[in-house]
Specification:
This protein is α+β, with helices and mostly antiparallel strands. Helix content is 24%, strand content 23%. The chain folds into 2 domains: 139 residues, no CATH class; 61 residues, no CATH class. The strands form 3 sheets. It has a 5-stranded antiparallel sheet with strand order 10-9-8-7-11, with no helix packed on it. A 4-stranded mixed sheet has the order 3-4-5-6. A 3-stranded antiparallel sheet has the order 1-2-12, with no helix packed on it. The two termini are 26 Å apart.
C-alpha cells in the first residue's frame, strides 16, 4: 500500500484493505463489515468482486434490502468508498477527548437539525453535481484525464497528453457517463497519466494518521449504526 509523509494512503485493493483492517485489529464481523464477501444478511457493509469482474460496494439495511454504493471495474475507487465508510463509522464512536470510548447518542434538537441539514444537502447534491472525479474518461474513442479542476486530453498522433480547452459540452455535462476509473490499464492504449509532467499527487486528505483510528474496538456496538439509510 503506497505511503506518503502525511501517513498511510488509502488502500487500493481488497487485499490491501483486509491487511489494513487486520493491522488495526478491527473485529470486522462484529463491526458488520465484510471485505471480499457477498453477505446477504441484514445490517452489513461489504465489497466483493462479482462473476463479471465488477467490484460491488453495498449496504444491507435493517429490513434486508440492499443499497449498492458502487458497481464497476475500478477496484481502487470501490475500495476507497468502503474505506471512507469504515472511517466515518470509527469517527462516530470517537469521544471528544481521545476517541477511545464509544459514544451513546440520544435524539436531541441539534441532532434533528443536523438530519434536516443533511437531507437538504443530499437533495442539493442530487440536483447539482459535485464535479468530475479524478481519473480517466473516454468520449467518442478519445481519452481524457481530470485532476484539480483541469481536463487533459490524449493526442494519439503525438502519443502525449496536453491541457485541454474547448471540450465538447456533452463531456462537461454528462461526465459520469464517460468515467473509466481512477486506475490506469494498458488496454486504454494511452500513456499512463501518472508518468506525465502534469500529474499531481492527491492531497493529504487521502491519508490518515494512526490516531485517526484510535478507538476501543472491543466496545464496538453495531447498533449505533444508522441501518435505515442508503449509506
Amino acid at each position: 500500500m503506497p505511503e506518503n509523509n502525511g501517513g498511510t494512503r488509502i488502500p487500493q485493493t481488497i487485499e490491501e484493505l483486509k491487511a489494513f483492517c487486520a493491522e488495526k485489529g478491527m473485529p470486522l464481523e462484529k463491526m458488520r463489515f465484510f471485505i471480499g464477501e457477498n453477505i446477504q444478511e441484514p445490517k452489513a457493509f461489504g465489497i466483493y468482486r462479482d462473476e463479471n469482474d465488477r467490484f460491488v460496494v453495498y449496504k444491507n439495511k435493517a429490513d434486508g434490502s440492499r443499497a449498492v454504493r458502487y458497481s464497476g471495474p475500478d477496484e481502487a475507487y470501490a475500495v476507497r468508498e468502503l474505506y471512507l465508510k469504515l472511517k466515518s463509522e470509527v469517527d462516530l464512536r470517537r469521544s471528544p477527548g481521545d476517541g477511545s470510548v464509544p459514544r451513546k447518542r440520544g435524539i436531541s434538537t441539534g441532532t434533528i437539525l443536523l438530519i434536516v441539514f443533511l437531507v437538504l444537502l443530499f437533495l442539493y447534491c442530487k440536483l447539482h453535481k459535485a464535479g468530475p472525479r479524478r481519473g480517466y474518461y473516454r468520449y467518442e474513442d478519445d481519452y481524457y484525464y481530470y485532476q484539480n479542476d483541469d481536463w487533459y486530453a490524449y493526442d494519439a498522433a503525438l502519443d502525449s497528453w496536453y491541457l485541454a480547452s474547448g471540450l465538447n459540452q456533452v463531456l462537461y455535462d454528462d461526465y459520469d457517463d464517460y468515467w473509466q476509473g481512477a486506475a490506469y490499464y494498458d488496454d486504454y492504449g494511452v500513456e499512463d497519466f501518472e508518468d506525465t509532467e502534469y500529474y499531481e499527487e492527491p492531497s493529504d486528505s487521502d491519508s490518515d494518521s494512526d490516531d485517526d483510528w484510535d478507538v476501543d474496538f472491543d466496545s464496538w456496538d453495531s447498533g449505533d449504526t444508522d441501518w435505515g439509510s442508503d449509506w
